[in-house]
Amino acid sequence: xxxxxxxxxxxxxxxxxxxxxxxxxxxxxxxxxxxxxxxxxxxxxxxxxxxxxxxxxxxxxxxxxxxxxxxxxxxxxxxxxxxxxxxxxxxxxxxxxxxxxxxxxxxxxxxxxxxxxxxxxxxxxxxxxxxxxxxxxxxxxxxxxxxxxxxxxxxxxxxxxxxxxxxxxxxxxxxxxxxxxxxxxxxxxxxxxxxxxxxxxxxxxxxxxxxxxxxxxxxxxxxxxxxxxxxxxxxxxxxxxxxxxxxxxxxxxxxxxxxxxxxxxxxxxxxxxxxxxxxxxxxxxxxxxxxxxxxxxxxxxxxxxxxxx
Length: 309
Fold this sequence. Notes:
Elements: H1 2-33, H2 66-78, E1 83-87, H3 96-104, H4 107-114, E2 123-130, E3 135-142, H5 146-163, H6 170-183, E4 186-187, H7 189-196, H8 211-216, E5 218-219, H9 221-234, E6 239-243, E7 248-254, E8 257-261, E9 282-284, H10 286-292
Parallel strand pairs: 4-5
Antiparallel strand pairs: 1-3, 2-3, 6-7, 7-8, 8-9
């Protein structure tokens, strides 16, 4: 009797394996071989942990909405992680994988999120992959190399030591750095023209990064704004980069309000190549900005909502 029961039990197991082998294999792979572990790493030295209306730092890595997916990507970038994985749980978020795929192909949204993090944690290239078991992996190539970070940190510390006084207000500190960068930088007309005409230069100055203005003395708008963002963050002044279709500048939180700061337009290119220093775009409100220019400074008010206040 005992032997017959054993044979019957084994037969049931064999039948179960025959009918449900795919489900069993999937269960073993998902929960034993590929455990759904989320590994939280330490933040690097450039993590800001700021919360904005568009994206917020999070410790919830089990998303239930597209906003939470954006928050995860923002947190990953902001904390300077090299590699991070989380999981789409179809039973609690049925469109998770589709939304991840949409975000992965949405360069506008990803580059917008990039504007809210410290320049040294911003990406040059971002890679998002999804496994058959809903595992989402994020990796990046950073915009700034380690030697560039070290060189810029040294330069910034030296400039701050030589220009900033203890009795200065935050506004005075910002003006001092604003003036210093403009006085030591010219707009990179050659590279701007090459970009406009879809041409490549044999020798490209890194004018799109802070290395441009702070090392080479040439900058595009992204170089000006990155350089200013580095100083602002070093001075513990809350800020992020704000962008229109073809331009980028800084948004700064000062005295309980947000102000625009555009070094590119305060360093205009003139026909006689005179190096001018203006303050037309120095810590101005959105209303003032719109009264001056409605072409290059048209930004998405649903994204950069802090600028609306």
